[in-house]
Amino acid sequence: MTALPGQRPTTAISPAAGRPADEDLRTLFGQSIAVFAALAGPTHVVETANPAFFAAIGEERARTGVPLAELMPELDGQGFIALLDEVYRTGESYTGHDARVVLGTGSQARETFFDFTYEARRDAAGTVTGIRVIGVETTQVKHAQRLMAEHRAMVEQIARQAPLTEVLEGMARCIENLAPQEVLVSVLLADADGRHLRHGAAPSLPDFYNEAIDGIATGEGVGSCGTAAHRREPVVVTDIATDPFWADFRDLAARAGLAACWSTPILARDGSLLGTFAMYHRTPRVPRDTDLAFARVFTGTAALAIERHHIEEAKAAADARARAAHDELARVVRAERELRAEAEQRAAAAAELTARLRAAAAAQAASPRPGQCQLGGSDGCAATAEIKVADSWGDSAWGCPVHVEEVIINVRSVFIASEELGGLAAYLNR
C-alpha cells in the first residue's frame, strides 16, 4: 500500500454492526472540533459529514451526495484519493500524522496539516461499503512550531549582530512563508526625529512602490503606516479602494495590486517610534486572530533588532569620536613638541648671535667701521659690512644684510643703528 509522508498503515478494525454504528458516530462527531465524514462506495461519495469537516474544506463546499474527488478535486494530485482507493480495496485502516494538505486552488489555496484515520465501513457480512474519515487539524500547532523555530533563528541573528537589513528581510520572508494566505510584508524605519518613515525591508513589494513610499511623513491620514506611526497604535485598513487614509496613495496601491493593509507601530521600550510593520493583501481582508498574533510577535522582534542596531550605531559613533579625539590629541602633542623644539633652536640661535654681537662690539674699539661682516660667527663672513645694528645695552656691530636680518629676527631689542641712511637703505633693499 502506498503511504504518504508522515503516515503509516494501521491494523484493520473489526467489522462494525453497520448502519447503527454510523449513526452513533455522526452523533458523537456532530459538534466536535474533530473532522468526520462518512464516504460510500468505490467513488467515495460524501454521505455525511460534521460541521468541522465542512469548515475545514470551506463552507461553500458544504454538500453531500457527490464523490469526494468532485467536491475536493485538489486532493487527487496529492495522493489522498489513491489512498482512499487502497483502503477501500484492502479494508485495512490507515493513519497519518501531520499530513500536509493543500486545500483550495489558485489564490484561495492554503496549506493545512492533519492527523487522520481512514477506516473501512463494512456491512453485516463484512464487505467494505465505504470509508470513515476521522481527523484533527494540526495546522495551528504546526505553524506555531515553525513560527517559534523561525523566531528563535531571528533572535540568534540579532544576538550575533547580523546586519539589520538581513534580519528584517528574513523576518518579512518568514511571515510571508508562514501565513496561511498570501501576505506581503513591509517594514519602515523611523527617522531620528520620528517625522518620516524610510524603507527597511519589503522583499515582495514592487520596487516602484517601495521607492514611492520611502520617506513618507508620519501623520493622521497618511496611509496605514503614516497613521499608525502618528497614533502609536495599530491601524487596520480592510479596503484600500474606499478608505480615506489612502486617498493620496490609492492609485499607487492599485498599480502594485494591493487591496488591504494592516500596520502596527514598532515602539522602543521607552515608547519612542522605531518604525512600522505592515501586512498587505491582494484582496480586501479583515485580520484574523492568527494575523494579529503574527503582528504582535514580529513587531516585538523587529523592535529588538532595530534597538540593537541603534545601540551598535551609537557605539560605533562613540568609538569614532574617541578615535578622532585621540588622533587630534596626538596631533596637538606632536605640534607642541615641534614648537618647543623650534623655540629651543631659536633660543640657542639668539644666544649665539648675542655673543657675536658683543664680540663685534668689543672689536670696534680698535676699528670703528670694519670692512667685512662681523656677524658671521666662527665660520666668518667675507661679505662687506653695510649695516650697523645695536642692542639696548649699547653693544653694536656691523654686518652684511643676511646676517643683520638673522640678528634682528633672533635677538631681542636689536635695531639698525647706522649713523647714515645708507645702512637702512641697504637693509630695506637686501
UniProtKB/TrEMBL annotation:
Gene3D superfamilies: 3.30.450.40, PAS domain. This is GAF domain-containing protein. It comes from the Bacteria. InterPro entries: GAF, GAF-like_dom_sf, PAS_4. SUPFAM superfamilies: GAF domain-like. Residues 159-316 form the GAF domain.
